[in-house]
Amino acid sequence: MPLVARLLIACGLLAGAPVLLAQDGGPPVDAGEPAPAGGLFGEPWLLGMSLGELILVATPFLIASLIALWFGVERLVVLRRGRVIPPAFVNRFLSLVESGRITEDEAREICEENGSPVAEVFRHAVKKSGRPSMEVEQAVIDGGARQVSHLRKHLRILNAVATVSPLMGLLGTVIGMIFAFAKISDGDGAMGDADQLAAGIVTALLTTALGLTVAIPSLILYHFLSGRVESLVMTMDELAERLVEAIAREEDDDDPPPPPPRPALPAPPKPRKVVKNAPTRDTARARLPAGTDV
């Protein structure tokens, strides 16, 4: 299980414990006696709670907010448009490729030196240079899917913080309300029980407020970064289409050229007719009647 998930689960388990500690105000107070001025860890500081009690209640949500802040700032830096799609590199590279002033090896080397996400997509396309457009587009899709996965990295953590923080607050509220009413059922004085119930409800509802305070900015940041990723992906797709048109082979070239025509064979000679038992000159002379000159 990832470390962040473990921290969020631990925060959820701790969300109810500070509420119980904050509600433990010492021995019961009689209705006619004034309430003590100090809380669990000193003088009342906010909402009848001391600073130490507030720190106990807010600790799980402070951890969750630090997680969201850390990964939110990290994604804001990584997803800068100039870092993902450097305009100088893109304009120069596409100009060289479309004009044919660069070889396949040189184009691949330039992409590797740049190292930006759009350069990685171009590198996958250049590997299929001279192939049919379907093969080049498939290479762009494969390379683009990997880069989108890298761009969306850690966004799930922001979504998890935005989802878990209200649940932690709700858990703390429910646990706090249960123990507040449990103390009321065990108390003797009606007035003292009412004051104790009010203090317990305030402490319990504070966890829900803290959970929403952490969840709302985290959710806004998550949707903002997700929209930026979608915008960057659309721009990369448009640039990849230009590259495919420049390096892919035309669709008509997919079929192999027809073989050259074979030379016509000469007609075979006609067979000569052979007359069987053809009469020779001597035979013909023998058959003539006597006294006939030949």
TrEMBL record:
Family the UniProt entry places it in: Belongs to the exbB/tolQ family.
Superkingdom assignment: Bacteria
Subcellular location: Cell membrane; Membrane
Main location: membrane
Membrane topology of this protein: Multi-pass membrane protein
InterPro entries from the UniProt entry: ExbB/TolQ_transport, MotA_ExbB_proton_chnl
Entry's transmembrane regions: 46-73, 157-181, 201-225
Boundaries of every MotA/TolQ/ExbB proton channel domain copy: 116-237
Signal sequence segment: 1-22
Ranges of Pro residues composition bias in the record: 257-269
Coiled coil segments of this chain: none
Protein name, per record: MotA/TolQ/ExbB proton channel domain-containing protein
Keyword rRNA-binding: no
Keyword line: Cell membrane, Membrane, Protein transport, Signal, Transmembrane, Transmembrane helix, Transport
Region: Disordered, residue numbers: 248-294
